[in-house]
Design goal:
- The protein has nine helices and seven strands; from the N terminus they run αααβααβααββαββαβ.
- Helix 5 crosses helix 7.
- The longest helix is centred in the middle third of the chain and has 20 residues.
- It has one domain: Rossmann fold, CATH 3.40.50.
- The chain is globular and about 50 Å long.
- With 235 residues, the protein is an alpha/beta fold.
- Helices cover 36% and strands 16% of the residues.
Length: 235
């Protein structure tokens, strides 16, 4: 990435040790340039709607069962070492990584974000209060705060709630995930004709994002797009 200086001021400049190679050139992102260049950037041809790798503009899955969200922008493929970085962020509360992911996402997608439908508000994937109490923070919210601040776009973390405390999605197959997440969200505000971006850390099957997008559209949203830090690879 050659335009790093444009977006890396979300947080004040801070020289860090690289999280991957332990060099002293981690900068304020905590990753040195050689390690950044070797990360699994999600750059191959992909479905515009769900970001699965495909040579078609829309993949077969989205053509046969169109999701409630309209497009997906992602940063990385969920592969080594990004999988470890995200787990370190979520489960070890390394909040500096929120700045890393937000900065890199904006670097990669700023041109598309500025030329597509203007986003009226950013909604982080809601976390149930029990899960929030266990973890101590919402990883999607921390990233969304920084993206919102940089884009000068409204951050809405109160209108949509996770009202159903469900088992973690990671251990479930697609049909189980869909059943598990059904009815999990509630929107308390009228989003009439708004363009909304959902921020989340990882997109696997898209079941959670789809259920949230459906809830947002039922509340009146006109357009919903997903901004995710990593997209899982097909098995």
């Amino acid at each position: 990435m050659n335009n790093r200086l444009k977006f890396n001021q979300i947080l004040p400049s801070l020289q860090q040790t690289c999280l991957l190679c332990a060099s002293h050139q981690g900068g304020n992102l905590g990753l040195c340039e050689p390690c950044l260049n070797q990360l699994p950037w999600h750059n191959t041809a992909q479905c515009r709607q769900c970001a699965l790798m495909t040579n078609n503009e829309i993949c077969g899955n989205c053509l046969s069962t169109s999701p409630s969200f309209d497009s997906t922008s992602t940063l990385f493929s969920y592969d080594y070492p990004v999988d470890g970085l995200l787990q370190h962020y979520k489960y070890n509360a390394n909040l500096n990584l929120a700045n890393t992911f937000a900065t890199l996402f904006l670097e990669k997608h700023h041109q598309h974000i500025s030329t597509r439908n203007k986003v009226d508000c950013i909604i982080p994937m809601p976390m149930h209060q029990h899960r929030l109490k266990e973890r101590g923070f919402n990883q999607a919210l921390e990233i969304a705060k920084l993206i919102s601040k940089s884009l000068i776009t409204k951050l809405d973390y109160a209108s949509c709630l996770r009202i159903k405390h469900t088992p973690p999605q990671a251990s479930l197959n697609l049909q189980e995930r869909i059943k598990n997440i059904k009815g999990a969200f509630q929107c308390t505000q009228n989003l009439h004709n708004l363009n909304v971006a959902i921020v989340d850390d990882v997109m696997t099957t898209g079941a959670s994002l789809n259920e949230l997008a459906k809830t947002l559209k039922q509340a009146g949203a006109a357009h919903v797009e997903c901004w995710v830090m990593a997209r899982t690879l097909p098995k």
